[in-house]
Amino acid sequence: AGPPIHKSATSVVIFADDIKAIDDYRKTFQKITEGLEDAVLYKGEQFLKSMNDLGIGFDQVIADDKFDQFDVNGDGKMDEDEFCKFCRSSLDRDMERRVVIKFMVEREQWEREIKSRNEFKLESKYIVDVLRIYSTEPEEDQKNPLMQHMPITKEMADKFSFALTHEASEFKAYSNAIVMLGADRNLDTIFRSERPALHTIRALMSDVGDALRHLHENNLIHGDLKMMNVVRVNDKLRLIDFDAAVRITKRDADPMKGGTIHYVGAKFSSGILPPEMIGRINDVESGFGPDGKSKHVLHQDMKNYKKYFTENRDGEENHSVLAQLWDKVKPKHSMKHGFYAVKSFRPEKTHKRDERVKDERKLAAEIRRKAGLDEVAVEAEEPESLAVPWKQELLPYELIRSSPQYDMWSFGVMLYFMCTGHQLFKSDRDDDLTTVDGLIHLAGWSDDALEEKLKDVDDEAAKEVLKALLKPNVEDRPKDMKEVMDYEFFKARLDQDGSVKDILKRFD
């Protein structure tokens, strides 16, 4: 293992070498061949599917070539040992698989990482899968003996240089972890190091667009789509970091009819947020001082906001983490315009959420009964939200419903950077806006502001799709990612793919 590759108030990520990868490869083979008369993989579609399950994502031509390399007998069959040799060659480095371990403070964050992948049946060719999970919390019965050295001990903290930003003693709070396949590079590093030409940018962003469409078609939005959360694994871009993911809210969702409203903003990077996510908070109001004279005092909205994000809800939350949370969400002040902040919220603790949702459903049923609505068709109860707001009534703004258009804006921010080489809004290394002027500019985003920014985009086809993705009004953005991928900018990718396949056919 090595030093952290990412650190924040709620998570730490490190690289590690997984010497037990061979066990996973054998389990994958057994799962794929389960129920078959002979436990072998056959050349063709079956082997290609196994590649997709592993997240390798070859096309059929390359898959067949790889199969032939490891089909020792040349009989068109691959047994378990041959399959494991193939996996070690394709996925391992010096016979050890490079993985990343993400340690998390919040159990709810950890749950979203796992549930978003498992419950929504996301395919490995679009996302980086979780290989193992671990939690030291008593409710969790999924403890894995392979991960018995977590959470982080003081010795590990010293070894990984975690104490650069945290006291080692605080790492007992990082009691939840997931293990994932290690990536080659993220999209930000790819862009800055490899300087891709426009046709390569088109191919890269097509991978991202296809992955995003897959999420949306499975009723999930990513919630924090940015360059750092797109990584290259086995020469294909995939999405990571699903701790901001939420279900898509149905347009006609009505809690009184069993529908569920899902909200975005529990976790965010303000530099990639759409305009509707920024709000102004009242800061002062008229009042009276101790001497009885009229004066301006701190507005109740601001008092509620600070209390909301700094209160230790159950007396067990880490003080350092709370301080960093407040630093993240603290409103930025302008002498002329007042205070601006992201319309964020804190998710309920899991056990509290379950109790509240149960009570609310009982109450809604009782209200329907008293109102004589028993005969009205009621929607089937939806699965619980991945992030239920805690004490929503204290917030001085309306929360924003989840929708595909939320991710589309972030996709547009990413594409704009790839096409111009500079950010849509000046952001720091964590993709957060650095000044109040940035928040004000975003909150007041307009068609005129968009047109001004598009002057820096040379390619007309890119301008066309960016104009659709970065619309100020959420209702004016494309209805889904299929519509986005049908724009001329991405269609050119299909033409290029076709020509490449024609060339390959000549060598058959």
TrEMBL record:
What SUPFAM superfamilies does this protein map onto? Answer: EF-hand, Protein kinase-like (PK-like)
Q: Domain EF-hand spans what residues?
A: 58-93
The molecular function terms of the Gene Ontology recorded here are: ATP binding; calcium ion binding; protein serine/threonine kinase activity
* Domain annotation Protein kinase: ranges: 67-490
Instruction: Identify the keywords attached in UniProt to this record, alphabetized.
Output: Calcium
* Superkingdom, taxonomy of origin: Eukaryota
Please give the InterPro entries that the UniProt record associates with this protein: EF-hand-dom_pair, EF_Hand_1_Ca_BS, EF_hand_dom, Kinase-like_dom_sf, Prot_kinase_dom
GO terms for cellular component: nucleus
* One GO BP: mitotic DNA damage checkpoint signaling
Tell me the protein family, please: Belongs to the protein kinase superfamily. Ser/Thr protein kinase family. CDPK subfamily.
Name recorded for this polypeptide: Calmodulin
What is the organism field in this record? Triparma strigata
- Upper lineage: Eukaryota, Sar, Stramenopiles, Ochrophyta, Bolidophyceae
